[in-house]
Design brief:
- By secondary structure, the protein is an alpha/beta fold.
- Helix content is about 35%, strand content about 15%.
- The strands form 4 sheets. A 7-stranded mixed sheet has the order 8-7-9-10-12-11-17, sandwiched between helices.
- β4, α10 and β5 form a beta-alpha-beta unit.
């Protein structure tokens, strides 16, 4: 996802202004100390102006960031899309006053803009987002910055093969998150020497002391166990910090964690290492600024990258998608695997990520054809999704595949991917009760509801192989979070290989002027609806069948037209009744004056092991259930309403 050019965000200065404001290089130790104090002062001032924020969390890491930006970071602020730029990720996103104060010291925002922190219309949000062109990803949901940073570092080491570094500032509280240790293991096992984690161990969390307090050795033992190099430093000693960064840059055989002992609220006596000061402005900002030595106006000349440049990835060629003959049987998961492999052949920016289920999701087909762009994350779904976000930061097009049920483990990463405006493609196989005997722990029954709730997402559930193949290719062209729901079992091919499938579309498979009911399905339930419609047609009952393969955005015009012509709509889905296809269809009529008579068929009871056919029957979503629902909705209208009391 290429970043916009500097100065393109609302309220930001021009690139020329940024360049002319940088005046000197901070090399003297005393100047570095002064710069750290300036960052503290500005963090205090920003939070005070906003009336909210996290100045004390910013103050603990001020010296760490002063030394990094002055002496080690390589970044062209005039060209955020420069391929050689380092990446700085604030995993402790609540320390945003520090990040914005750093941007001010680098000359890319003004003091007036800093003091509009957290105000309506300002891109300086409470937690950083890519509304600012120098921010790669949104942070603030703790435990996510390091996993995403590992994905960016993976791109540098294995795909871009450029010498940029990834620096991730982590708080000590977030080190309780399991996702951090998924990242530690992945980066250590992968030998990502271009990744440095800066652990700001300030002892205090949101409500009191952290789990390990200032026990740096506890952190060292844990981090080293995952194959990382560690360096312990006094996080307020600029010489120690500088030396640690140099050692990290010189390390070539694995990632480095700099474990820094810091003081929360450092520099201001009333809040330094004090509980109860988290997440609020200082009581007397003026007195705090005076105690910190007053305002300063030091500027950093950040070193520009020595290699790389601004470039666009080469465009792909025509995708030669697999085709399937009408009437044959094929699983949509097979179609996805073969289609994504074809996309990979045509588009060199395509990468596939696996959660150790590639045999089942059929991502293995891509691995066989493009092993250099296939990445295994084992049973670590959070790290898999985080890496997808990191890879797209560098302009790669990721597909991350696992069972639909297991994406729930990574849901917060998916939610934050949307906040990051990330472009990622998710694939969930083995959806619904139709998987059969494996039972409910393996059945994705919440996935459509969860993914529909993600901002600006796309949710696709194809009923046949040709549709699945086309949608797989279409996802690569779509912005935002896209989700493809695939099925384990083989189903009849309904559409010819030349049929088109647009995101937001649908297909009407049965239609006549005599239709009395519309049945809307997706995936396996389309086939059940067709079987029911054909049996009812023999009795003269016309049923329109709509394949709503695009669950979000749903094809509202087609549904409104069908409802207007038939007056009755039944939805049938292999999913819980909440939030899935049925609710997507009902939403279409929420703002209309004429509401059709509606009925939802969905999985309502907890499944157990059974064959696929038995599962559909027991759940009440097979062809027999659809047929009974059609008869029932027609019968309701013929029967007189019960007399009121």
């Amino acid at each position: 996802m290429p970043a916009p050019s500097a100065g393109s965000g609302p309220g930001l200065p021009s690139a020329a202004r940024c360049h002319t404001r940088r005046t000197n290089t901070m090399t003297d130790r005393q100047q570095l100390k002064e710069l750290g104090q300036q960052l503290r002062v500005d963090a205090v001032r920003a939070a005070d102006a906003a009336g909210s924020g996290h100045p004390t969390s910013s103050m603990s890491a001020a010296d760490l960031m002063a030394v990094l930006a002055s002496e080690h970071l390589q970044y062209d602020f005039d060209s955020p899309e420069h391929s050689g730029n380092d990446h700085l990720i604030f995993s402790k996103g609540h320390a945003s006053p520090l990040l914005y104060s750093l941007y001010k010291a680098c000359g890319v925002i003004s003091d007036d803009e800093l003091l509009r922190y957290r105000r309506l219309g300002s891109p300086l949000e409470g937690h950083p987002t890519p509304r600012l062109p120098w921010v790669d990803v949104a942070t603030g949901s703790l435990g996510q910055g390091l996993p995403v940073g590992a994905g960016v570092a993976l791109a540098g080491a294995e795909l871009d093969r450029l010498p940029y570094r990834v620096w991730v500032l982590c708080g000590d509280s977030e080190l309780a998150e399991g996702s951090v240790w998924e990242a530690m293991e992945y980066a250590g096992q992968s030998g990502l020497a271009n990744l440095t984690a800066i652990l700001d161990v300030n002892r205090l969390g949101q409500r009191g002391p952290t789990r390990h307090g200032w026990d740096l050795d506890a952190y060292r033992r844990r981090v080293e166990a995952f194959g990382w190099h560690t360096i312990e430093v006094d996080g307020h000693d600029v010489a120690e910090i500088d030396s640690a960064y140099r050692r990290a840059r010189e390390t070539a055989d694995g990632p480095t964690a700099i474990i820094a002992r810091t003081v929360k609220g450092a520099g201001v006596g009333e809040v330094a290492d004090q509980e109860g000061a988290h997440g609020k402005p200082l009581a007397d900002a003026g007195r705090a600024v005076a105690e910190l030595g007053g305002r300063r106006d030091l500027r950093i000349e950040v070193a520009r990258p020595e290699s790389g440049g601004v470039y666009q990835r080469p465009g792909g060629s025509r995708v030669d998608l697999p085709t399937f003959a009408v009437g044959d049987k094929a699983a949509t998961r097979d179609a996805f695997g073969r289609a994504v492999s074809a996309v990979g052949a045509a588009r060199p920016d395509t990468v596939v990520l696996d959660g150790e289920v590639a045999d089942s999701t059929r991502a293995k087909f891509f691995a066989e054809q493009h092993p250099d762009r296939f990445f295994e994350f084992y049973i670590a779904e959070q790290q898999m999704i985080a890496a997808a976000v990191g890879l797209q930061v560098r302009g790669w097009t990721p597909y991350a595949a696992t069972f639909a049920a297991f994406l729930t483990r990574a849901y917060d990463f998916i939610r934050m991917a949307a906040v990051s405006r990330a472009d990622i493609n998710l694939v969930g196989s083995h959806a619904g009760v139709a998987i059969g005997e494996d039972g409910p722990s393996q059945m994705g029954l919440e996935d459509m509801a969860a993914l529909r709730a993600v901002h600006n997402s796309v949710v696709l559930h194809p009923a046949d192989a040709n549709c699945a193949a086309r949608l797989t290719a279409g996802m690569a062209e779509h912005d935002g979070v896209s989700y493809l729901r695939t099925m384990r079992g083989a189903t009849p091919v309904l559409y010819g290989p030349d049929e088109g499938f647009e995101i937001g579309g649908s297909k009407v498979l049965r239609s006549s002027t005599d239709d009395r009911v519309t049945v809307v399905g997706a995936g396996v339930t389309v086939h059940e609806a067709l079987a029911a419609a054909d049996r009812l047609a023999e009795e003269g009952i016309g049923v329109r069948v709509v394949d709503a393969y695009s669950v979000k955005p749903v094809d509202a015009p087609t549904l409104r037209a069908a409802a207007a012509e038939t007056g009755r709509v039944i939805t049938v889905e292999d999913h819980w009744p909440e939030g899935g296809l049925g609710d997507a269809v009902l939403d279409v009529f929420a703002d209309t004056r004429s509401m059709p008579r509606t009925m939802k068929l969905a999985v309502t009871g907890m499944p157990a092991s059974a064959t696929p056919a038995e599962q559909l029957r027991e759940a009440g979503i097979d062809s027999g259930a659809v047929e009974a629902a059609v008869r029932g909705i027609l019968r309701q209208e013929r029967e007189p309403a019960a007399a009121g009391g």
